[in-house]
Design a protein that fits this description.
By secondary structure, the protein is of the alpha/beta class. The protein has two domains: 261 residues, no CATH class; 60 residues, no CATH class. The chain contains nine helices and 20 strands. Strands 1, 4, 5, 7, 9, 11, 13, 15, 17 and 19 form a ten-stranded mixed β-sheet that branches. Strands 3-2-6-8-10-12-14-16-18-20 form a ten-stranded mixed β-sheet, with helices on one face. Helix 2 packs antiparallel against helix 6 and helix 8 packs antiparallel against helix 9. The chain is globular, with a radius of gyration of 21 Å.
Length: 427
């Protein structure tokens, strides 16, 4: 990583001093570590499928407020609240907290740290250069705290819009805290224009006893964007973390989920769909760490790659020595729409206990010619038949979103992607 790039980020960090109460020391420590280890390269096992040379050798500026606000996309379903961020900054005028503030604590990260200085030490810095840069340069985000026993029926939507941001980056972080027995759905959406920007986000969640967090991500960045995102989640006794990641945009997109199951009966399901268009690279990495006995996890990932597109999945399950009676499953299937497409899979099981049930499977293939023949022989045109097969292939990864209307909205976005990548039309 060139010194000139680090020096530029050093200047940006100095510019941000004082913007988040109590965070200046963490910024400096993170940048010092980044100067030592640099941004990841393909030589690192976790990054073997994501070549981020373009951002490793480029000093991105801090995003500025665009001259004109971009259009906020329509909601996929009824929402409890909508938090809108434009170029990495919260926009109160376009947001709507609804009645959520009466049931939960929802406030900007800066306000949270100002009122709770001791909470700074609980925020994760991350283990690689991408997370460290988020720590060094983050300047906005929200804290969502759902009190014990409170159930929020409709999703809390966080919309990240990027516009007119060529050669700049935004580093944002959200915290989600689930009280005992609470439940909520957090929907993150990422939408951008065709400028060459970098979106680098992190969501940190703590799920306590008996609580449930449904975390849904819909990534539709612009065609020239780089998207990196990390979820760091800890789950307590009887707690549930359900994640669904849908990756549809960006030149290079990567989502990383690191989940720790800390107490008996904790559960995690992490699912994902990535659709890589021509020349795009989509990478998903999941590490579920079973620390205690009687914990469960399940993963369902489906990827589709078009001409010269690349999809990659790395799924690791770790079972600690004393974590007996663990049940962990992992399923990955990739579909290639062109002979020049590429799919990579790296499932891993690291088991130190002897009474567990763990399994994984990975398959890569092309569209079923017999199924295509069956559909076309019944009067369905080849383009529509192809769309139907791809939508059916990805469908089982949407079953655990926790909201049927939201799942249908996501399916509609997948259908739109297929229309744009098969020459179809809405007529």
């Amino acid at each position: 990583m060139p010194d000139t790039v680090i020096d530029t980020y050093q200047e940006q960090m100095q510019e941000l001093q004082g913007s988040l109460p109590g965070w200046d020391g963490a910024r400096s420590n993170a940048l010092d570590r980044l100067r030592t280890i640099g941004l990841p390269t393909t030589r690192g096992e976790d990054w073997r499928y994501s070549d981020i040379k373009a951002i490793r050798n480029t000093a991105f500026g801090l995003m500025k407020t665009p001259a004109r606000n971009p259009q906020v996309p329509e909601a996929l379903c009824d929402v409890a609240a909508r938090l809108v961020f434009i170029n990495g900054r919260y926009h109160e005028g376009l947001s709507d907290l609804g009645d959520l503030w009466q049931a939960a604590s929802v406030r900007p990260l800066a306000n949270h740290l100002m009122a709770n200085a001791e909470r700074v030490s609980e925020m994760r810095q991350g283990g690689d250069g991408i997370n460290l840069l988020n720590t060094a340069l983050m300047r906005d985000g929200f804290v969502i705290s759902i009190p014990a026993g409170i159930e929020i029926d409709d999703p809390i939507e966080i919309v990240h819009l990027t516009s007119d941001a060529d050669s700049t980056s935004a580093h944002i972080r959200h915290l989600v805290e689930m009280g005992e027995g609470a439940s909520a759905t957090v929907l993150e959406r990422f939408v951008g224009d065709d400028t060459a920007y970098w979106s680098n986000s992190m969501l940190q969640a703590r799920i306590t006893e008996g609580a449930t967090l449904n975390h849904v991500r819909l990534q539709e960045e612009g065609a020239n964007a780089t998207h990196t995102a990390t979820a760091m989640v800890s789950v307590g006794a009887g707690g549930n973390y359900h994640a669904t990641n849908i990756s549809l945009g960006g030149s290079l997109a990567r989502f990383e989920a690191r989940v720790r199951l800390l107490v008996d009966e904790a559960n995690a399901t992490v699912d994902g769909v990535a659709l890589a268009g021509t020349g795009e690279s989509h990478d998903m990495l999941v590490h579920i760490d079973h620390r205690m006995p009687n914990t469960t996890s399940d993963q369902i990932f489906r990827t589709v790659a078009d001409a010269r597109g690349k999809s990659s999945f790395q799924g690791k399950v770790t079972v600690a020595t004393d974590a007996q009676h663990v049940n962990a499953d992992q399923s990955f299937k990739a579909l290639l729409l062109d002979r020049t497409a590429e799919a990579n899979a790296k499932p891993e099981l690291e088991i130190f206990a002897d009474d567990v049930k763990c399994s994984h499977g990975a398959t890569v293939g092309e569209l079923d010619e017999k199924a295509m023949f069956y559909l076309t022989s019944r009067g369905i045109d080849p383009t529509t038949a192809r769309q139907m097969l791809v939508e059916a292939f990805t469908d089982d990864a949407f079953d655990r979103t926790g909201n049927d209307t939201l799942a249908d909205g996501i399916r509609a976005r997948v259908a739109d992607w297929m229309l744009n990548h098969t020459g179809g039309s809405n007529d």
